[in-house]
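Tokens as discussed.
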């Protein structure tokens, strides 16, 4: 006869495993209430079903009963977490694999002893190991990018191992074996769960890195296209300014003083806006600074810039545009969100110090910042769709042997890009 604990032990173990995969995940509203109600319902259901099936021998219904627990875990994840159905299935399968590996280790222990305290410790140790290696990494601040090509092999192997284990524990004659064989089977069974999770986690990380790299490359291409377009615009504006200067000379010869003066002032104002040519020594940087400077002027953002563009001769045009474009776009976005006019300030400084190129962008900020891996990330919307700007800056800095630092204190956000110049001496000469 099955005692009371045995009727609910399995579902309790599964719920505990699922809970470990929920720690870092984004949770739905009323998470605690959802978790309590779902867990209570599952425990009561498990108790009732096991009470009905406890005297039955192995059958296909027992296999279906065990498989149903996998579906239950998926539903538990989906009801309690703010994730997609695919993400819920992935985490649920991983949780079941964790529980099954712990079950295998506990079965090995039962070949030598029967202390429930030790058995509980076995589960605790295995759960802690799997949490450290997998659970804390899979979700990563609530995001778990899952693909069918990642989920399918994991689910297939785990289900096969699971069904074989069910058949082995069901007392079928062709599964009977000596203690040594049973221990060997359990070791292989547990290692299979571990290996599958390890392989799938590495595959998942590769897919995530590929997605990020594709996003960064896409951003680079868009930035390059924008550079070409804006270069044409700037050239057109410069030509217009040149024409306007000649028109102004002609206008001064007009006889109607009031009409002449009004038209003169209007045209002169236009020239003052567009004839603020930036000359840093790098044409790509000039385009970016003029574009962003005009935007700041039209949106009442104070703009200060001190930059020597000749230091950037070793960088590709698209890299220059990506670094400065993303950095200034982030600063402009933060400035636009500040209601106080005196705080709508952006400062750009680029200097060389100790043979190191230092690019510094500073601005006030008022929004709550969340940092992930040393970089600020969006607090709104999907993180899969945002955050490529800062990652792109870091990637480009590392491409040239540099790094970036981010500091946010006293309502001032500071981004610094540090690139050593000595390793680019040959490139500087080549591009000149």
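Sequence:
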């Amino acid at each position: 006869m099955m005692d009371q604990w045995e009727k609910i032990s399995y579902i309790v173990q599964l719920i505990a495993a699922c809970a470990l995969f929920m720690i870092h995940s984004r949770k739905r509203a009323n998470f605690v209430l959802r978790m309590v109600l779902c867990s209570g319902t599952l425990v009561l259901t498990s108790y009732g079903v096991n009470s009905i099936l406890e005297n039955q021998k192995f059958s296909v219904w027992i296999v279906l009963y065990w498989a149903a627990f996998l579906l239950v875990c998926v539903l538990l994840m989906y009801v309690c977490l703010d994730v997609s159905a695919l993400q819920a299935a992935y985490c649920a399968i991983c949780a079941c694999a964790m529980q099954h590996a712990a079950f295998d280790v506990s079965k090995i222990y039962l070949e030598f002893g029967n202390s429930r305290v030790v058995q509980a410790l076995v589960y605790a140790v295995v759960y802690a190991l799997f949490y450290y290696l997998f659970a804390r990494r899979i979700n990563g601040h609530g995001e778990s990018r899952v693909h069918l090509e990642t989920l399918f092999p994991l689910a297939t192997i785990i289900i096969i191992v699971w069904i074989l284990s069910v058949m082995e524990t069901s007392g079928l004659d062709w599964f009977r074996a000596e203690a040594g064989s049973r221990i060997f089977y359990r070791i292989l069974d547990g290692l299979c769960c571990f290996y599958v999770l390890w392989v799938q986690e590495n595959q998942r990380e590769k897919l995530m890195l590929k997605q990020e790299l594709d996003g960064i490359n896409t951003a680079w291409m868009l930035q390059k296209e924008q550079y070409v377009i804006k270069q044409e615009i700037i050239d057109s504006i410069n030509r217009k300014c040149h024409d306007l200067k000649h028109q102004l000379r002609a206008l001064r010869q007009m006889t109607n003083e009031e009409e002449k003066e009004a038209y003169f002032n209007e045209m002169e104002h236009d020239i003052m806006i567009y004839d603020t040519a930036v000359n840093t020594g790098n044409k790509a940087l000039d385009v970016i600074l003029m574009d962003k400077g005009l935007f700041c002027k039209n949106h009442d953002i104070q703009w200060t810039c001190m930059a020597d563009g000749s230091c950037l001769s070793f960088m590709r045009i698209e890299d220059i545009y990506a670094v400065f474009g993303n950095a200034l776009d982030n600063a402009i976005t933060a400035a636009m969100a500040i209601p106080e006019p005196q705080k709508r300030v952006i400062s750009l400084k680029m200097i060389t110090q100790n043979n190191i190129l230092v690019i510094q962008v500073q601005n006030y900020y008022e929004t709550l910042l969340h940092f992930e891996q040393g970089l600020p990330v969006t607090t709104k919307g999907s993180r899969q769709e945002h955050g490529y700007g800062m990652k792109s800056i870091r990637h480009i800095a590392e491409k040239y042997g540099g790094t970036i630092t981010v500091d946010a204190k006293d309502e001032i956000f500071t981004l610094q890009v540090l690139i050593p110049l000595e390793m680019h001496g040959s490139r500087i000469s080549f591009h000149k």
